[in-house]
Amino acid sequence: MSTERRIILFTAMEPSGDAHAAPVIEEIKRNHPDLEPVAWGGPKMEAAGATMLGRTADDGVMGLAGIGRIRQVKKLHDEIVGWAASRRVAVHVPVDSPSANLPLSARLKPTGARIINLVAPQLWAWAPWRITKLKAVSEVLLCLLPFEERWFRERGMRAKFIGHPVLSVPLDPARVADERSTLPPGGPRIVILPGSRSSEVRANARLLAETFSHIQARHRAAVGVVVATTDSNARLFRERLGGRLPPATHITVGGIDGAIDWCELALAVSGTVSLDCARQAKPMIGIYKTSFLEVLGAKLVIRAPFLLLPNIVAGREIVPEFVPYSGGPARLAEVALDLIGDGRKVARMREDLRAIASQFVGYEPARIASEIISRAAAGKGLTNAELDSIE
C-alpha cells in the first residue's frame, strides 16, 4: 500500500452497513485516487474495491449476545487499533452500529483520525442523553433521514443530510422487469421480506409464514414469495418452518426490487426494506417479532413514537407498524386482509409513500459522502456552513 495515499478506514458490523458503505467506497475509488479505502466489513465493500482487512458484516456483530458479544467486540477493536498503530489513518468512517463503532472511534481519534459517521446514530429514538459522548468523538454525521440534520445541529453537532442509497438511486426498469419475469402468477400476491441478518430471519420466519397462511385461508389463490438476502438465510427460513412452506410459497435469493414490483402487499421485517417498498409506493405491514418482556422493555426505553422508517420520516403512522410485536399471526393477517380489500386505504398509503420518497429525490449519497470524506482527509474545515456548500 502506497504511503502517499491517505488511508480511509471503514468499519461496518452488519449487512446493512456493508450495503451503505459500498457505493461510497466505489465513488472514492473512481474520483479520489489520492485516497486508499480499507475496511473491516462485508462482501459488497470488497466488491466496491476496498482493501479488506477483516470480515465483520456478513451477518452482523449485533447478532451476538451478552458477554460473548462484549468479548468479541473488544477483541475486534484491539485488532483494528493494533493495525492502525503502525499506520496513519486519515479518516475513520464508522458505518452505523453505534454500540460497536463508537467505542472504536473513541480509541482511534487520539491517533489523529478524523471521525465521519456514515449513518447518524438514532439517538432521537432511544438515547438523546448520549449526545455529549457522541459529540466528543464524532466530527461529522452523515444523515440518511431528512429531519436528522436539524436534530443534531440543534444539539451542537455538525451534520449533513446526504439522502438515502435506497431512495435516492433511481430504479432500473429493465432489471426490475427481468427479476419480476420469473415470479409466479396468482393473487393476491404477497412478498415476504424476513430481513438481512440471520437473527431477524430466525425471529420472524414462522410468524411471517403463518400470517401468509391466514391470508390464504381467505384467498385460496394467494401466492407468496419470500425474498432472502443470502443462500444461508433462505435455508434458515426453511429450517425455521421445519422444511414445510405454506402452499404456493416460493423462496428466491435477491431480486427484491422485482419482487416488490410484482407484489400487492409486503410483509416486511422492519428496517431498510421498508424504504425499498416506499420507493415503489407498495403497501406494506412492518413487523418485528420479540418476546412480551422485550416489548415491555422497548416501551420503557424507546422515546420515538414510531420505529418503522416510513412512519419515522412522515412523523405519523402511514404504514401499520407491529414493531416490536409479541402477538400471533391472526392480528397481522386481519390488518393485511383489510388492506387487500380496501382500495381507498391502499391508494392513500401509496400516495403517502410517494410523498416520503420525494424528499430524497435529487440527492447523491455516495458522491456527497465521498466529497466530505475527501475534504476531511485533506485536513480541510467541515463546519455546518461548509457542509451546506456541498451539494
What do these coordinates show?
The chain has 391 residues and is an alpha/beta fold. It folds into 2 domains: 6-168 and 362-383, Rossmann fold, CATH 3.40.50; 173-358, 3-Layer(aba) Sandwich (Rossmann fold), CATH 3.40.50.2000. Helix content is 48%, strand content 18%. It has helices at residues 15-31, 43-48, 66-85, 98-108, 123-126, 131-137, 148-153, 173-180, 198-218, 231-240, 256-262, 273-279, 292-301, 309-314, 329-340, 343-358, 365-377, 384-388, and strands at 6-12, 35-41, 51-55, 89-95, 114-118, 140-143, 159-161, 189-193, 223-228, 249-253, 265-269, 284-289, 321-325. The strands form 2 sheets. It has a 7-stranded parallel beta sheet with strand order 3-2-1-4-5-6-7, sandwiched between helices. A 6-stranded parallel beta sheet has the order 10-9-8-11-12-13, with helices on both faces. Strand 8 (189-193), helix 9 and strand 9 form a beta-alpha-beta unit. Helix 9 (198-218) crosses helix 10. The radius of gyration is 21 Å and the shape is globular. Residues 61-66 have low confidence and may be disordered.
Enumerate the spans where pLDDT stays under 50 for 5 or more consecutive residues: 61-66
Strand order of the largest sheet: 3-2-1-4-5-6-7
CATH architecture of the largest domain: 3-Layer(aba) Sandwich
* Mean pLDDT level: 93
Remind me, CATH topology of the largest domain?
A: Rossmann fold
| Count of domain modules | 2
**Portion in strands:** 15-25%
Shape: globular
Topology (elements, then pairings):
Blueprint: E1 6-12, H1 15-31, E2 35-41, H2 43-48, E3 51-55, H3 66-85, E4 89-95, H4 98-108, E5 114-118, H5 123-126, H6 131-137, E6 140-143, H7 148-153, E7 159-161, H8 173-180, E8 189-193, H9 198-218, E9 223-228, H10 231-240, E10 249-253, H11 256-262, E11 265-269, H12 273-279, E12 284-289, H13 292-301, H14 309-314, E13 321-325, H15 329-340, H16 343-358, H17 365-377, H18 384-388
Parallel strand pairs: 1-2, 1-4, 2-3, 4-5, 5-6, 6-7, 8-9, 8-11, 9-10, 11-12, 12-13
